[in-house]
Amino acid sequence: MSGAAAALDRTVARVLQWGIGASIAMMAIGVALMVARGVDPLGPPPPPFDPAAILSGLASLEPTSFLWLGLILTIVTPTLRVLASLVGFARTGQRRMVIVSVAILVVIAASVAVASGAA
Fold it and tell me: Which pLDDT belongs to residue 5?
């Protein structure tokens, strides 16, 4: 394995480790806050997902905001991995893999657009 390929592997591994670590941390904080506040996870459903309310919810230590952020990080992490790969492939001149990475990102973007329209 060349030095560039090994560096790319390390970068991608770091992206995945940090993304999943942050996701687990956010969810753990959310669960801990639920327990501390005596919130029944099987009680009434939480308010609907509101991305604009996440930051203010984090500031006020709302458990659902931490849980939502953890879920968002879980979903975004693989996309960040593809972006990191794309940059690495572009730097090493692997055109075919750049095209594959771009195609994957297009599929992800189309999926998000379709899901957003269906909601």
Answer: 75
How far, in whole angstroms, is CA 53 from its chain's centroid?
A: 18
- From 106, 39, 98, 89, select the one nearest 66 (Cα to Cα): 39
Tokens of 22: 């942050």
Burial 63-101 (b: 16+ CB within 10 A, else e): bbbbbbbbeebbeebebebbbbbbebbeeeebeebbeeb
What is the domain partition of the chain in residue ranges?
A: 3-118
Q: Which amino acid would we find at residue 48?
A: P
pLDDT along the chain (119 residues), means of 10: 79 90 96 91 81 92 94 92 92 94 95 80
Q: What is the pLDDT of residue 8?
A: 82
CA distances from 3 to 25, 98, 100 (A): 32, 19, 22
**DSSP H or E stretch at residue 40:** none
pTM, two decimals, is 0.78
